[in-house]
Amino acid sequence: MRIGLLTEGGYPYATGESRLWCDRLVRGLPQHEFDLFALSRSAGQEDQGLVRLPHHVGRVRTAPLWTPEDGTSRGSGERGLLARLVTGGGVSYGRRDRRRFAAHLTKLATAVCASEDAGAAPATDGAPGTELFTEGFYGLAELARERGGLPLALRSETTVRILEAAARARGAGHIVRSATVVDHLAFAAELERVLRPLSLDWYDPESLGAVDLCHAASGGAAAIPGLLAKRFFGVPLLITEHAVQLRAHHLAAPDAPFGAPVRALLARLHTLLAAEVYRQAALVVAGNTHVRRWQQRCGAGPAKQRTVYPGMAAERFARVGEHDDRGGPDTLVWAGRIEPAKDLIALLHAFAEVRRAEPDARLRIFGAPAEGEEAATYLTHCRALAAQLFPDEAAGAHAEGVSPVTFEEIGGPEVPDLAEAYAAGGVAVLSSVVEGFPIGLVESMLCGRATVSTDVGAVVEVIGGTGLVVPPRNPRALADACIALLRDPERRARLGAAARARALELFTVEQNLAAFRGIYLELISQAPVRREPDGDPLLFATPPEARLPGPWTRPRAALPGPDKAAAGAADGPERAVGEGQAVAADERAAAEVRAGAGQRATAGERVRVCAAADRGPGDGDA
């Protein structure tokens, strides 16, 4: 199959979200061909460049979701008309296109302004404004595909007037009604950025129209090209989310440089978009049950949902988990990015209680501050608090004082990698107040370490009874759990072994790849057969047998007779397997002949073709 992988702010760029997961997915399924369609979030991300891609990546199309300061166009995915508009060339709509634009935008704006508090509720098919939103959204998409010019139109005076009228119409909430001209200008700019994927040049038979399946690595903007590929070409859409984009928007809204009316309008816009994405997707995959519940709240139907845990490279931690027992029995280990959400302040206060009960206990903090001035300031604050709570202690009058709390970075001679960091302690601690899927917790489990974690995000689902869980922002409870494990080495060892066994069963790269391999086959088996304009079935973009090296890839005159089959079996098992794969290839050729003769090609034939490509040379059909 040819998979169109849709990303936003991540793979195949060298930095960004879900980069590692997408890279493992692409490299782990070499029997499929991948076309990458990537949206970048900043100039800095583009300047970092792309990662080295495997040979079965067919093409890479990129486009920016940001506007350069000099107004020049960047990326390979923008329409030529859009490029002229951004650089100031400008092309105005004719009268008919102006009417089309105004009608579609009015529907979309009416839906967005329908209720000021609808952003907190799921926008299901029966919710007010849902039908208007979809009509306006796809109407603008068709206008952009046919005529271009949508970004300039969305920043025009016409847009501001339409938004003003919708905000003052009957049914709009009082917060939206209070929006000023400045608010409408700010929302128009944000609306243009959110809808920018509508103006890309990816929607033609040679781009997204040529893929067999669209796989969006997140919701939001990344899924918009998948929505249009389904509408224009009938390509099935698969959504995978390890963190719900709508939830991230709600969490970031209070810090946005907008007033309350703009925040209300953006919340409603993202809610309606998420509901349409979930409605059109053939399957919605969640990285954990916590994300799955958020998807349901945002409109995803339970029948369409599937949970597939992200895969971790277990071999990185094999030596620590199986053979390394050097971890300090009195040492607590924390590892991760140092930022306010990790709540190291509560951890330091909890460790003060631990030291009163266990004077020999130590706390080793491994990590560096996340990007941004706020994270750097937070690290400085944590260091100052640690120095205040735990002054340097010396064993004697002539010994050098040493603090029981250390802040260390991974990569030095003592701790060259993350596995060594977890090996340095007997108990791993997670003290976060906000967490999605706790990757650091899984890493400590793969190292066979007993864990103490706060009950946030998907922590309870990941731990599954193999560690201690306490409420967040509760230093006393965190300290009691740590003390209990420090005083009971047998319990530590038992929980560590159980945690490693659970992690190896559920959270490895192998289980993740196996799940998506089956999902791809399942979705293709359920999708209607796509046809050429003259009615002939549209076969897979790359012949499956091209992935199978061996004699069965060469042209054959006819199926082997009984004598030839017997001779093949006598040549050994490898020869027999080759003949079995040849039969699979010939069955596909026969299906093509039947289709060319006017017979109906069924979805089952597509599955058999895909299954033949999915099996390796050692998985014979006999």
Task: Note down, in words, how this protein is organized.
This protein has 622 residues and is an alpha/beta fold. The chain contains 25 helices and 13 strands. Helix 13 links the parallel strand 6 and strand 7. It is globular.
Widest sheet: strand ordering: 3-2-1-4-5-6-7
Number of strands: 13
Shape: globular
How is the biggest beta sheet arranged?
A: 7 strands, parallel
Structural class: alpha/beta
Number of helices: 25
Question: Poorly predicted ranges (pLDDT <50, ≥5 residues)?
Answer: 70-91, 116-122, 555-622
**Percentage of helical residues?**
40-55%
The Cα radius of gyration reads 28 Å
Average pLDDT taken over every residue: 81
Percentage beta strand: 5-15%
Distance between the termini: 24 Å
What would you say about this model in short?
This protein has 622 residues and is of the alpha/beta class. It is built from 25 helices and 13 strands.
Give the topology, please.
Elements: E1 2-8, H1 19-28, E2 33-40, H2 43-47, E3 57-64, H3 80-86, H4 95-112, H5 130-147, H6 150-154, H7 157-168, H8 174-177, H9 181-194, E4 213-216, H10 224-233, E5 237-241, H11 245-252, H12 260-280, E6 283-286, H13 289-297, E7 305-307, H14 318-323, E8 328-335, H15 344-357, E9 362-366, H16 373-389, E10 405-408, H17 418-423, E11 425-430, H18 439-446, E12 450-454, H19 459-463, E13 468-470, H20 475-486, H21 489-506, H22 509-526, H23 562-570, H24 573-596, H25 603-614
Parallel strand pairs: 1-2, 1-4, 2-3, 4-5, 5-6, 6-7, 8-9, 8-11, 9-10, 11-12, 12-13
Helix pairs in contact: 4-5, 4-7, 7-9, 9-12, 11-12, 15-16, 15-20, 18-21, 22-25, 23-24, 24-25
